[in-house]
Amino acid sequence: MRHLLSTPKQAILWAGVIFILALSITGFTLAIPEVPSFDDIRDSHKSSESTLLDRHGEVLHVSRSDFSGRRLRWTPLSDISPALIDKVLRAEDQRFFDHEGVDFLAIAKAASALLTLDRPRGASTITMQLTGFLAPSLAPRSSGRSILQKWRQMRMAWDLEQTWTKREILESYLNLITYRSELKGIAAASKALFAKAPSGLNTQESAILAALIRGPNANKARVEKRACLLLADDCEGLKDLITSALTPPYQFPPLARAAYHAFQRLHDPNTSSETILSTLDGPLQHFVNETVRGQVAGLTDQNLQDAAVLVVDNKSGEILAYVGSSGSLSDAQYVDGVQARRQAGSTLKPFVYGLAIERRYLTAATLLEDGAIEIPISAGGVYRPRNYDSTFHGPVTVREALASSLNTPAVRAILTVGTNEVVKRLNALGFKNLMAPEFYGASLALGSADVTLWELTNAYRTLANGGRTSPLTFKVNDKTNSAHVQCEGASYVITSILSDRLARALGFGLSSPLNTPYFSAVKTGTSKDMRDNWTIGYSSDYTVGVWAGNFSGQPMWNVSGVSGAAPIWRTIMDYLHRDRQSMPPSPSPDVVTQTVSHHPSGRTVEEFFLDGTQQGQVSTVLKQRAKIIYPTNDTLLSVDPDIPASLQKIHFQASGLGDSDFIWQLNKTKMGQTNQPFYWSPTPGHYTLSLITASGEQMDEVRFTVR
User: Fold this and answer.
1) Which partner from 154, 248, 360, 625 sits 20 to 30 angstroms from 234, CA to CA?
2) Domain end: 216, 245, 274, which one?
3) Phi, psi at residue 103, to the nearest 5°?
4) Is the pLDDT assigned to residue 25 strictly greater than 50?
């Protein structure tokens, strides 16, 4: 006994052993952490990787969302290689299936080894080690566990064995321990070190992982020594395998990266959900990615780097494909082109004409002058819109003007219906963050507003649904409220125009990517200086929106909507209808068909009208309705006290006057005529400014305030 107590260290160890035995004999208890249920531990385990699934459960995108450790999904014991289980038990707890949480034989051997100065032996069972993961107060400290902490660990291990099965204990242990660096759990370790699932681990790989448990960050030589012992010295090739496996960085095989921008939109870092089910269609998403990359790669010589696509189911609003950029072909691949605000170009024209047709100012057969027009602007000067090809075509019908995307007729149309009303309609369609109407003026008809592909695609989906709108959704079978924002008849007339390849021929010819062998309605748009390309269109079942351009804002070189975005749109549409028909909608009850004769050409066509607006002959160009363009409705003006009143003037301005002479009327008082500039000295108050004819007919009216 004197020999056994010959050193202070041995005396302390013997004292600890005697203390533990005394606690066991007397039944002394300390506060023991409550044993959780196995189901709770398994269900609370979260992967450090968040996964986006398509509507069929296919993995589309995987991204790391937790940086406290690298974990994958919980792996059932039945999916773990028997070789690994064998090596782990051999290394950590050879009597695992024989003890009840505490291996007193192992404790005795460990104490004996210490007291006889032999090589130290471990005495913690797998169950005891597991308690450190289940109860933070029992986790090992840098200074080691105290005697009392060790006792509580033993007591919890014994309780754990009374409530869990051996398989549950072993399964939890293998899923919770750290194997190397930040790799936690067998799934992460086997994937990162050997690019395998746990079920595929061989004997040598299993020995390496088992050797890492005792020293996760041990050097390669020590890991090799431990693993070799577990292999009974059958170690041929082990060193090379360890060198390959344990050389940082420890990375998983390439992860799914097919829907980065959709994942960013759906993933909530504040939730514990690791799997997100979406409405995306996996095969379609992959096809759209390839199509975008192919088109952009083919136009890099024309300074095209970026493109974005949104594909939507018309009926449900479910998003089937969401591609925000061209990926590695872009210098800003993480920018989301579906949500980026870009200039709309001609894509807003259908909503201008749709509103004018609904208000019965225009019909599809109305003649508009495609010719030079000058519009005074409030800042001074005039606005002179031109067509894309810088030529004018004279009198054209609304059908021809919209289908061929002529500019000056669209400007005449917005002057007829009013920019204020168009902005209200765009807001109702879901366009956000629009400026005040006076900011745009008549240029809104040609797309001076900044919009997103998300907004445009859903607005065109509204046309496909007869003027009824509802939010887009990533949730399968999501029930959302819908509302009519445009009458069904006007939507049908616009759809018939956008699907009319003959009417489109004036601007695009008879052969273009816009002409599909199945029903589709489509519109292109190109912003100023070719900075943005758009093609938005729909069939009976789908709406596809495409933007092409550069996130940097640089212009493309000779790339229009029909050559940049349209080929992407057409390729995707063909894919969607490779085995599906698309039939044109039937006229709504408020639409009638009328044979129209154009005079003096004598051309006769069948045209659609809202009931009550039909006409049998069209022979004159619509005269532009006179409109007040400044001040605009609800303008708030301020008198500056530091400027002499004689120098503060408001210039009343109007458009669409033609050769007619109109009268300015302010709060029922006639102020002057429009045949010469009129300047009014403002005084505080509320005002109603009217534009009337000599006979007293009111043409337009706005309200404004001076303070």
Assistant:
1) 248
2) 245
3) -100, 95
4) no
Tell me how far apart the 2 most distant CA atoms of the chain are, in Å.
Answer: 129
43 and 62 assigned to the same domain? yes
Q: What is the pLDDT of residues 219-258, one digit of tens each?
A: 999 999 999 999 987 899 999 999 999 999 888 776 788 9
With a CB cutoff of 8 Å and minimum separation 6, the contacts of 454 are 310, 338, 339, 472
pLDDT surpassing 70 at residue 109: no
- What would the two tokens of residue 649 be? 């003037």
**Residues 6 or more apart whose Cβ sits within 8 Å of residue 705:** 635, 636, 637, 685, 686, 687
DSSP state of 510: S
Q: Are residues 667 and 695 in the same domain?
A: yes
What would the two tokens of residue 354 be?
């749709």
State the Cα–Cα distance between residues 493 and 354, nearest whole angstrom.
Answer: 8
565 closest CA partner among 523, 532, 535: 535
- What are the C-alpha distances in Å from 8 to residues 5, 122, 360? 7, 21, 103
| DSSP code, position 473 | B
Give the end-to-end CA distance of the chain in Å, rounded to a whole number.
Answer: 104
Distances (CA, A) of 508 to 364, 369, 381, 522, 534: 19, 19, 33, 12, 15
**Are 374 and 382 contacting, i.e. CB atoms less than 8 angstroms apart?**
yes
Packing angle of the helix pair 220-230, 238-245 (nearest 10 deg): 130
For the ranges 184-188, 378-382, 395-399, 619-623, which has the lowest average pLDDT? 378-382
* 678 domain-assigned: yes
Residue 16 located in a structural domain: no
Six-digit token pair at 637?
């003006």
- Please give the residue that has the higher pLDDT: either 373 or 482: 482
For the chain, percent of residues with pLDDT exceeding 90:
63
For residue 300, the Cα-to-chain-centroid distance in whole angstroms is 25
Torsional sign, CA 344, 346, 350, 356? positive
Structure tokens at 132: 């450190």
* Sequence-ordered strand ranges (E) for 347-498: 367-370, 375-376, 382-383, 394-397, 450-451, 468-469, 483-484
Residues 72-108 have pLDDT tens digits of 889 999 999 999 999 999 999 999 999 988 877 766 6
Q: CA quadruple 104, 110, 113, 114: dihedral positive or negative?
A: negative
- Which of 28-32, 493-497, 523-527, 617-621 is predicted least confidently? 28-32
The pair of three-digit structure tokens given for residue 129, joined into one six-digit string: 């080690």
User: What's the CATH number where 36 sits?
Assistant: 1.10.3810.10
Task: Tell me the two tokens of residue 547.
Answer: 């933007």
Residue 187 belongs to domain spanning: 31-245
- Based on the number of CB atoms within 10 Å of its own CB, is 530 exposed (0-12), middle (13-18) or buried (19 or more)? buried
Please list, in sequence order, all residues whose beta carbon lies within 8 angstroms of the beta carbon of residue 99, skipping any fewer than 6 positions away.
105, 125
Assigned domain for 274 exists: no
pLDDT recorded at residue 28: 47
Q: What is the CATH number of the domain that holds 601?
A: 3.40.710.10
User: How many independent structural domains does the chain possess?
Assistant: 3
- In terms of pTM, does the model score above 0.90? no
